[in-house]
Amino acid sequence: MIFGNPGVYDYDGKITYFAINVEKLFHAENNPPIIALNLLINLTYYPRKIATNIASVYLGNLKIKEKLFHQESEMLFNLSDKELLNSLIKNRYYDANDFPQENYFWDLDVTEYQDRGFYPYIVNYKDETRIIMISNPSNQISEFFDSNDWQIDSTILPRGDFLEILKDARKYIESISNNES
């Protein structure tokens, strides 16, 4: 089930470039369901492989009341993708300082995202949300920062639309979790 619009025109002629794809993979009796949860940004699937885990892992990271989905940073929101890469990754791994990049990190699933080299971030400003995916295709952190080792993709959508996507995805995962196999 796809929540949001991954980059195609809808019936009203509107287009956005963000969606969450949730699929029920397996649900054995008396066990939590196994689902896949992937992000679609600008028609690109993140992570590149199906991200699977028990439903409750993803439910905890889709709560629309989480501070992450409401805090604002005009400075980060208005940076170019290249500047964002430097601010978020360089400060995270190479120039450890007091910059609070972790405040914007969307910790979806360590094993399926971070361990595979995918780092989602959320930055809000005014009524908009910027979803950022930084990836390291080699999944190797070199000793010195080289922007060529990293890729960045981002999109901006109205914050209300983003929160609605989260709410709908969460509601669907809850329904999977509450149904019998």
Describe this structure in words.
This protein has 181 residues and is α+β, with helices and mostly antiparallel strands. The protein is 24% helix and 28% strand. The protein contains four helices and eight strands, in the order E-E-E-E-E-H-H-H-E-E-E-H. Strands 1, 2, 3, 4 and 5 form a five-stranded antiparallel sheet that branches. Strands 6-7-8 form a three-stranded antiparallel sheet. Strand 2 (18-26) and strand 3 form a beta hairpin. The longest helix has 20 residues, at 159-178. The radius of gyration is 17 Å and the shape is globular. The two termini are 18 Å apart.
Low-confidence stretches: none
Rg, alpha carbons: 17 Å
3D shape? globular
Note the gap between the termini: 18 Å
- Give the number of DSSP strands: 8
Helix content: 10-25%
pLDDT averaged over residues: 87
N-to-C order of helices and strands: EEEEEHHHEEEH
Largest sheet properties: 5 strands, antiparallel
Strand content: 25-35%
- Please count the helical segments: 4
Sheet/helix structural class: alpha+beta
